């Protein structure tokens, strides 16, 4: 007969221990609060363009990069098309979003960011002066059919209102679908 070392359990003792762990786990689970399966939050990325704070859906921005020092100008491109940046071995067209909307060029700084879009077959980077971070909004605070004046207004279809403060939602999908935006040649 094989003897077990002192620190090993017999098969019966191990099974009894596992059954005890399972029972106590079920008891602990019953004491946990119920979780709601419905998520009533909308996640957005807050950034500024031409002095206006706007928010874009997190699922429309695939990546956020610091300003790329080496952007190669493309001859014959519109002024808002800054050029191409080499990002991890792939060429990324970079567009100054403020220039696109008729404002002043973004002055590159530590706060400047490039928001990478991969929408509607378009892969491009949008240079913005700053990104304030991520924000969660309750879908109950959504203002559907919200409109905004100015060049940004063509891409704002809704907003959120939180404690009297309005957060315009900028549609990156609408921007990516705009034929003017997709045509960078002068």
Averaging pLDDT over every residue, what do you get? 89
Number of strands: 12
The CATH homologous superfamily is named CheA-289, Domain 4
CATH class: Mainly Beta
User: What percentage of amino acids are in beta strands?
Assistant: 35-45%
Q: Globular, elongated, flat, extended or rod-shaped: what is the shape?
A: elongated
> Strands of the biggest beta sheet: in what spatial order?
3-7-8-6-5-4
The amount of helix comes to 10-25%
Our measurement of the CA-to-CA distance between the termini, rounded to an integer number of angstroms, reads: 89 Å
The biggest beta sheet reads: 6 strands, mixed
Tally the structural domains. 1
- Using the 3D structure, state the CATH architecture: Beta Barrel
Which stretches are low in confidence, meaning pLDDT under 50 for 5 or more residues running? Answer: none
* Radius of gyration from CA coordinates: 26 Å
The ordered H/E elements are HEEEEEEHEEEEEEHH
Would you tell me which CATH topology applies?
Answer: OB fold (Dihydrolipoamide Acetyltransferase, E2P)
Helical segment count? 4
* Main structural class: alpha+beta
């Amino acid at each position: 007969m094989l003897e077990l070392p002192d620190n090993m359990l017999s098969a019966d003792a191990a099974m009894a221990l596992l059954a005890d762990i399972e029972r106590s786990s079920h008891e602990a689970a019953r004491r946990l609060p119920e979780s709601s399966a419905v998520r009533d939050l909308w996640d957005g990325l807050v950034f500024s363009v031409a002095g206006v704070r706007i928010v874009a859906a997190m699922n429309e921005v695939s990546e956020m990069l610091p300003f790329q020092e080496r952007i190669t100008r493309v001859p014959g491109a519109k002024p808002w098309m800054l050029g191409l940046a080499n990002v991890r071995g792939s060429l990324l067209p970079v567009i100054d979003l403020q220039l696109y909307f008729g404002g002043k060029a973004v002055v590159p700084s530590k706060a400047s960011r490039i928001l990478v879009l991969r929408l509607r077959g378009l892969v491009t980077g949008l240079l913005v002066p700053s990104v304030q971070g991520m924000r969660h909004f309750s879908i109950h605070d959504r203002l559907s059919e919200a409109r905004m004046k100015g060049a940004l207004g063509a891409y704002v279809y809704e907003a959120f209102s939180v404690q009297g403060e309005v957060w315009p939602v900028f549609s990156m999908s609408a921007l990516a679908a705009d034929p003017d935006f997709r045509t960078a040649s002068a």
